[in-house]
């Protein structure tokens, strides 16, 4: 399972490091100690990203993102059959869905809690691992 340092979690959620620390102190986001470092489990980060996407007005946002940019985020859901996969990501305030082959999703290791980047151009969403 993936885990994230606080600055990485903040980047994925599109908030400041201090906001993530406040959420941890308030018990809104769980952490784990890994070798003396405070880490955020990927699944916990994905769950928080989904809840924030459901109520985007509750999250302070630093700015807007052009649709032509690469959007860093976190995978929140993967649905696969024998041929295709539907991959859902939360990238800051945005929820994106990409359709790709199941083979591509497996090769990228896409599962809830994994960090990913969505590249959006017109109607295409391309997912890559950082």
Automatic annotation (TrEMBL):
InterPro entries xref list: HTH_17 (IPR041657), Mo/tungstate-bd_C_term_dom (IPR008995), Mop_domain (IPR004606), SinI_DNA-bd (IPR010093), Transp-assoc_OB_typ1 (IPR005116)
Entry keyword set: Molybdenum
Domain Mop, chain residue ranges per copy: 64-129
Signal peptide extent: none
NCBIfam families assigned: excise (TIGR01764)
Name listed for the protein in its UniProt record: Helix-turn-helix transcriptional regulator
């Amino acid at each position: 399972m993936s885990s994230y340092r606080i600055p990485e979690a903040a980047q994925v959620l599109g908030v400041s490091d201090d906001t993530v620390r406040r959420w941890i102190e308030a018990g809104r986001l769980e952490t784990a100690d890994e070798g003396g470092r405070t880490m955020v489990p990927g699944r916990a980060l994905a769950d928080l990203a989904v809840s924030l996407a459901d109520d985007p007005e509750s999250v302070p946002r630093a700015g807007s993102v052009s649709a032509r940019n690469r959007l860093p985020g976190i995978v929140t859901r993967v649905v696969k059959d024998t041929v295709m996969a539907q991959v859902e990501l939360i990238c800051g305030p945005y929820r994106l869905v990409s359709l790709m082959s199941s083979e591509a999703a497996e090769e990228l290791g896409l599962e809830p809690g994994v960090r990913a980047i969505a590249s959006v151009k017109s109607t295409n969403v391309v997912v890559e691992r950082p």
